[in-house]
Amino acid sequence: MPKKRRSKTERMFMLAFLVMLAGAAGLTVQVLHQLPDVEKISSYIPSESTILYSSDGKILARFHREENRQVVPLSKISVHFQNAVIATEDPRFREHHGLDFLGIIRAGVKNFAYGRVVEGGSTITQQLARNLFLTKKKTLLRKLAEALLALRIERRYTKEEILELYLNQVYLGHNAYGIESASNLYFGKRAAELTLSESAMIAGLIRGPELYSPYRNLKGSKLRQIFVINKMLEHNLITEREGRSAAIESLNFSPKNLRSLGEIAPYFIGFVLHDLTEKYGEEMVYHGGLRVYTTLDSSRQAAAEAVISRFVSEEGKKYNFSQAALISIDPRTGYIQAMVGGANFFESKFNRAVQSRRQPGSSFKPFIYTAAVEQGIMPGTVLMDTPTTFSVWPTRWNPDGKWSPKNFDGKFRGPVTMRYALEKSLNLPSIKLLERVGIQNAVEAAQKMGIQSRLEPALSLTLGASEVSLLEMTSAFGVFADGGIRVEPTTVTKIENRDGVVLYSHSVTEKRVLDENVAAIMIDMMRGVL
């Protein structure tokens, strides 16, 4: 009887085992049918940040939506970092075919001994499969799909291809995806330049990017770095001497790289971003990995921001203003080298350098005098600075159409030379000069020099009554400096796609709009102002 009972029990266990086996087989078949095609990896193009560079090679900004990533080939990733990741995440990466059964057993034993998870069993290939195709939900189906995908990926791709994909995909904290973005974020350098010590620190972030971030938990980050170094020693990837040296090396972090749009030349960056999205669309700008080389000079920009900050602080209360703007343009190339659109970008993102139109006042007078010189009226010509009433178009505020302007100081000087009138910014002689030159001729002179805003054809044009932008005024004055040559202002010299193919290359186009002698005479007259 006992024998019979055992036989019956054995049969029940066998039946249960077969049912479980059949269920597992059915589940595997079901998952296999639902697996994504790993061939898609060949044509996979990850979302990549667009990067803006200054003219002196500094990164100004990165444009991205969800993921800040810059893809680089394996050859441009430090071997130290490659080894650090392999030692920590998958020591038998070069030996297994997607699944590491020994690693799973070893991790299980170690986790059981410690009573908590201290080591994972997923290979680099499994992690890549999960990152590319699956969710992070911890279910049996997901783990099975992950394992099957890993096997397929290993059959299709080389170890180098798998490692390159993984190192460009892995999340490393503070919205940095991939080692190139993380290397810049933490150390302000390229992935190829990482030292052993730096590599160990970043590799240690994979298991807990936010938990071990040196910007949030420096002590935890250091302990994790030592753990990685010990793993590299354990697997003979470094010598003891290298390990000791890496452990005591002082790391120079770059917390400034945590800054977002708005920290460095924010108004300029916003201006460029607007133009980029107009030309290429948001999808390309935020996901396409463009490399945009701008005209901005970081040292000039820093000086410009300091000037505006000091000017608003020192003069603002005295003259009751809280905003100011500044643009610096190279007149020979049209390159915008500095742009400040306001006193504080975070308080007001309105760019007063390009979006705002204001009455330029007496700074508009040189365009009137330019039209006069073009007609042969020379600096020594005598103009009358005397009280005068002009007939103008009647308005609601001036129904009789009579206008009797005065000079800034309320004084009249009688006969003066044209040079003196410009130097002292005298209103009456300048208005009379505009009458003599012709309003339309003055408008055309300003327009061909770069003023694009609508100019009111009235005598008040002399006093800068028509609103223009600072960008227009700065660019137009550049014509004087460049001997009568007009060059369109620009912010970008070159744009490349993620593969380095040049999409746009700026070429400076010169156009003579003033006779060289006219420009020279105007410069000579304006010297007296200074």
From TrEMBL:
It catalyses: Preferential cleavage: (Ac)2-L-Lys-D-Ala-|-D-Ala. Also transpeptidation of peptidyl-alanyl moieties that are N-acyl substituents of D-alanine; [GlcNAc-(1->4)-Mur2Ac(oyl-L-Ala-gamma-D-Glu-L-Lys-D-Ala-D-Ala)](n)-di-trans,octa-cis-undecaprenyl diphosphate + beta-D-GlcNAc-(1->4)-Mur2Ac(oyl-L-Ala-gamma-D-Glu-L-Lys-D-Ala-D-Ala)-di-trans,octa-cis-undecaprenyl diphosphate = [GlcNAc-(1->4)-Mur2Ac(oyl-L-Ala-gamma-D-Glu-L-Lys-D-Ala-D-Ala)](n+1)-di-trans,octa-cis-undecaprenyl diphosphate + di-trans,octa-cis-undecaprenyl diphosphate + H(+). GO terms for molecular function: penicillin binding; peptidoglycan glycosyltransferase activity; serine-type D-Ala-D-Ala carboxypeptidase activity. It holds the Pfam family Transpeptidase. GO terms for cellular component: membrane; outer membrane-bounded periplasmic space. GO terms for biological process: cell wall organization; peptidoglycan biosynthetic process; proteolysis; regulation of cell shape. Residues 328-529 form the Penicillin-binding protein transpeptidase domain. InterPro entries: Beta-lactam/transpept-like, Glyco_trans_51, Glycosyltr_51/Transpeptidase, Lysozyme-like_dom_sf, PBP_transglycosylase, PCN-bd_Tpept. Residues 56-232 form the Glycosyl transferase family domain. Keywords: Carboxypeptidase, Cell shape, Cell wall biogenesis/degradation, Glycosyltransferase, Hydrolase, Membrane, Multifunctional enzyme, Peptidoglycan synthesis, Protease, Transferase, Transmembrane, Transmembrane helix. Its main location: membrane. It is found in: Membrane. Pathway: Cell wall biogenesis; peptidoglycan biosynthesis. This is PBP1A family penicillin-binding protein. It comes from Candidatus Saganbacteria bacterium. The lineage of its organism: Bacteria, Bacillati, Saganbacteria.
